[in-house]
Amino acid sequence: MTRSTLSRRNAMILVAVAVPVLVVSACSSTKSVSKTDVETQSQQQLSATVGSQVPAIVCPGDLEAKVGTVIVCSITSAESGAVYDVTITVTSVDESTGNAKWDIKVADQPRGSST
């Protein structure tokens, strides 16, 4: 039962969502979204999508505000402790407003599982 419950929940989370956030400009000309903002905004959007609070998303660092940039974050199931990859891909950057949007996709299988 736990496996099917996780599968249903993951199926709901698999929805790709666009998350608009403010792009923070560092001292250099490279623009990025802070690690904290990526984690917080992504968690909030996934929670809104599935209709309940999802566990914290943990990312390895800032997200470069460049279309096509990909980072792989993680989310840990509160029920099983299994860790799932969360792939975040920048889909657009509005240079005039400084907003970036990205898609979020949670893996359907936990890390290290064999299919």
Report what the structure shows.
By secondary structure, this protein is an alpha+beta fold. It has one domain (2-106). It has two helices and eight strands; from the N terminus they run αβββαβββββ. The strands form two sheets. A five-stranded antiparallel beta sheet has the order 1-8-7-6-4, with helices on one face. The chain is globular. The relative contact order is 0.23. Residues 1-28 have low confidence and may be disordered.
Average residue-wise pLDDT: 78
State the helicity in percent bands: 10-25%
General shape: globular
Number of strands: 8
The low-confidence parts are 1-28
By secondary-structure content and strand pairing, the structural class works out as alpha+beta
> Strand order within the widest sheet?
1-8-7-6-4
- How much of the sequence is in beta strands? 25-35%
Sheet with most strands: 5 strands, antiparallel
Query: What is the H-and-E element order?
Result: HEEEHEEEEE
- Taking the alpha carbons of the first and last residues, their distance comes to 18 Å
Task: Give short descriptive properties of this protein.
five-stranded antiparallel sheet; 8 strands; 24% helix; alpha+beta; 115 residues; single chain; disordered N terminus; three-stranded antiparallel sheet
Provide the fold topology:
Layout: H1 2-13, E1 21-22, E2 24-25, E3 31-33, H2 35-50, E4 57-58, E5 63-64, E6 70-76, E7 83-94, E8 99-106
Antiparallel strand pairs: 1-8, 2-3, 3-5, 4-6, 6-7, 7-8
